[in-house]
Amino acid sequence: MNTLLTTRFDLKMDAAEKDIVARAAALMGTTMAGFVRSAVKEKAQELLDREATLRMSSQDFDQFSQAIQGAFKPNPALQDALKAAAKVQRA
Question: Among 16, 20, 71, 79, which lies 20 to 30 A Cα-Cα from 88?
Answer without folding.
Answer: 71
